[in-house]
Amino acid sequence: MTPLSIILVLISALIHSSWNFFTKRGNFPVEFFFWVFLWGVLFYLPFFIGFGVFPSLFLTPPPKLWWIVILSGFFETIYFICLIEAYRVGDLSLVYPISRSAPLFTQIWAIFFIGEVLSPRGMLGIGLVMAGIYIISLKDFHLNNILSQSHRLISRSYLLAFSAAIASSIYSVIDKVGVQIIHPVFYLWLINLSMAIYTGLYLALRKENPLWKIWRQSKKEILIISLLQNAAYLLVLMAMTMSKVSYVVAFRQAGALFGAVMGIVLLKESDWKTRITGALILTLGLVLIGLAR
Q1: Which of 45, 92, 212, 228 keeps 20 to 30 A from 135, CA to CA?
Q2: Cβ–Cβ < 8 Å for 114, 177
Q3: 269: DSSP letter
Q4: How many domains are contained in the chain?
Q5: Which helix (H) or strand (E) holds 94?
Q6: H helix count then E strand count, the chain
Q7: In terms of pLDDT, which residue wins out, 125 or 253?
């Protein structure tokens, strides 16, 4: 990875773990994130209109762009829904690292679908990241608890977090193709629009919490998390224009380290010894990925 892409992804990981911390602490419903995505659309409109790229962006889109946006938005919406529901039943220091276990799957999709070739050092780094994430999910290092980990793999929070990781790995590879077609800022705006539409359809079918009630109760938090989420996502998209998506996604898992620390220190969650050990192994993997070509 290039030094600039490493810096961008590290900043993104810190921002990403921060808004996940606020999401867990606030226990926000899916309706909350409909407003987050909608404001992600509204934030950019004044700039686009000022620079004269709106509505021409809709009228003359690059070939294949709409299919990419539709697919990426769909899988990212699945990611968010699974992540939000996982936070409502599980600890931040468990759910966040598991939801960030996308590197293994991203590596597979990137090799088969966009032809990326990884170095041995990079692959070892990705393996250590995955090992670190697994250790973070353990209660302790006793053999019986390690062997009984399979029981936790079928818990609702674990399955939701793992589903979020799968969805994340898919949309990340799609995003790599998208930022090669259009500027990351424009691409992010289209993804926000797509996610607002998908989330709105999901909520229309579910009909649980009134949207206006959520807005009135949490407008400050919505605006803050929308800014954080868009900043984190944009930095990753920019890094993807400079480095291989497998490395970017793996390095982004530095957020699992930040998330585990926030859960343990700020939310007073348990099992800190194994989670810190796993975070250190994960960090070693990140160093190897940073040195990979």
Answers
A1: 228
A2: yes
A3: -
A4: 1
A5: helix 92-99
A6: 15, 0
A7: 125
Exposed / middle / buried, residue 260 (Cβ in 10 Å: 0-12, 13-18, 19+): buried
Output the CA angle 278-280-285, nearest 5 degrees: 95
Residue located via tokens 């009909």: 207
Q: Is the pTM of this model over 0.85?
A: no
Task: Tell me 54's DSSP state.
Answer: T
Residue numbers of the domain that contains 188: 3-291
Residue 183 has pLDDT above 90, yes or no: no
Task: Decide: 258 and 105 in contact? Cβ < 8 Å.
Answer: no
Residue 140: the pLDDT is: 61
Which is it for the CA torsion 4, 110, 21, 189, positive or negative?
positive
Better-predicted residue by pLDDT, 134 or 32: 32
With CA atoms as reference, report the closest residue to 263 among 139, 93, 28.
Answer: 93
